[in-house]
Amino acid sequence: MYRFNFRDVWANFDLLLDGALLTLQLSAITMALGLLIGIAGALARSWGPPPVQWTARGYVEVIRNTPLLIQIFIVYFGLPGFGIRLDADTAAVVALTINLGAYATEIIRAGVEAIPRSQVEAGLSLGLSHLQTFRYVVVFPALRVIYPALASQFILLMLATSVVSQISARELFHIAGFIQSRTFRDFEVYLVITGMYLAMALAFRLIFAGIHLLVFRRR
């Protein structure tokens, strides 16, 4: 019968905390950058000239229909062939940002296009500029529509950071593999990091739920 022994895992728990911290840092940076790409991509797909729309659509289709791991390998192993060398953490941020940007583009585009055209025309007829109409008539209603999907995508991104362990980025999953190779307590190590990923995901959900309550429910 298997006997659990967490002693060696707890002895290395400080390393797991360091890995969890890097996971959170990668997630936060990627969320911010991916959101900016998503906004730009959504505007390009919805209101850009045809060549810009086609480019944005091509980007979305390529990223959404290829594995994240391949995208990471292309950034980390492929770019050096063009003279661009990135360390593991930077390559992880770049690849994850490009990936999230494609999904955020589609989520935001759906929200923007959900706003009735008549509502936009009403804003323009009241004398608002196109920028003012976008800001006051389109943005907030669209955010209300897309916020749940965008928040869920952010949480999925945080969980997907485990993939960057394949290029030796020292996030939580990579550290867990290192500890497992030293202690041979496979089940205990992965059980502990399961709990840590669960705790981080629940923390993100609470934060996003709080933001939703503060920003949307009071209006």
Q: What's the rounded overall pLDDT mean?
A: 92
Report the order of strands and helices. HHHHHHHHH
Strand proportion:
under 5%
The parts where pLDDT drops under 50 for at least 5 residues are none
Question: Which oligomeric state applies?
Answer: single chain
How much helical structure, as a percent, in the residues? over 70%
What would your notes on this structure say?
With 219 residues, the protein is an all-alpha fold. The chain has one domain: MetI-like fold (Orthogonal Bundle). It is built from 9 helices and no strands. Helix 7 packs antiparallel against helix 9 and helix 8 packs antiparallel against helix 9. The longest helix has 35 residues. The chain is globular and about 75 Å long.
Structural descriptors:
219 residues, mainly alpha, MetI-like fold, 9 helices, globular
Please summarize what this structure is.
The protein is an all-alpha fold. It contains 9 helices and no strands.
Would you spell out the secondary-structure blueprint of this structure?
Layout: H1 7-11, H2 13-47, H3 50-64, H4 68-78, H5 88-113, H6 117-125, H7 130-160, H8 172-183, H9 186-215
Helix pairs in contact: 2-3, 2-5, 2-8, 3-5, 4-5, 5-7, 6-7, 7-9, 8-9
